[in-house]
Design brief:
Number of helices: 6
Helix content: 40-55%
Pfam families: PepSY_TM
Largest sheet: 6 strands, antiparallel
Radius of gyration: 26 Å
Order of helices and strands: HHHHEEEEEEHH
Keywords: Membrane, Transmembrane, Transmembrane helix
Number of strands: 6
Protein name: PepSY domain-containing protein
Structural class: alpha+beta
Strand content: 15-25%
Shape: elongated
Length: 171
């Protein structure tokens, strides 16, 4: 009777923990072999050729100050521009803006249309690896629950493996 209950518990624990284990395994694999995996992932950043091909729409320092917080002069592809304290920036000659996010950078033209994007796969996969799907808002509780489930999964698996052998040995 106990054997059947533990077998059921083992199955449910495995079903609960399986997606987390797969996610942690795949994101960990990426962390170790990012340079080999990156060419297969989508998202190309804006290139110098694309930026040069855009029509000229100069941005003044006054306009940059209105759009950015504490703009500082920077060089993007050898061209002058400004970058704010929050990482957002503007190309001086074309007015192209870049907006870095937690794991994705967008490039927008003067009209606000997205002209290029790049996913920071390293940041995204590290976030998933550390915090899971739940994100940082729940803290470590989801990971703690999965760790508890994996511990019980291991113990129930050990029981399922050893119990029949111990019964045979006693006979």
């Amino acid at each position: 009777m106990w054997h059947r209950r533990i077998k059921t518990l083992h199955g449910w624990l495995g079903l609960f923990a399986w997606p987390w284990v797969v996610m942690i395994a795949l994101t960990g694999l990426y962390q170790n072999h990012a340079s080999a995996i990156d060419p297969f992932l989508p998202g190309a950043p804006l290139t110098e050729a694309q930026l040069s091909a855009l029509p000229a729409s100069p941005v003044t320092e006054v306009e940059a100050s209105a759009l950015l917080t504490e703009p500082e002069p920077v060089t993007v592809f050898g061209r002058p521009g400004w970058q704010g304290a929050d990482g957002r920036g503007i190309d001086q000659a074309t007015g192209v803006r870049w907006e870095p996010g937690p794991w994705m950078t967008l490039w927008r033209d003067r009209g606000g249309e997205v002209i290029a994007w790049r996913v920071e796969w390293q940041k995204l996969f590290l976030r998933l690896h550390r915090a899971g799907w739940a994100g940082e808002n729940l803290g470590t509780w989801p990971a703690d629950l999965v760790a508890l489930a994996l511990t019980l999964f291991g113990l129930s698996g050990l029981w399922l493996f050893l119990a029949p052998r111990l019964r045979r040995w006693r006979r």
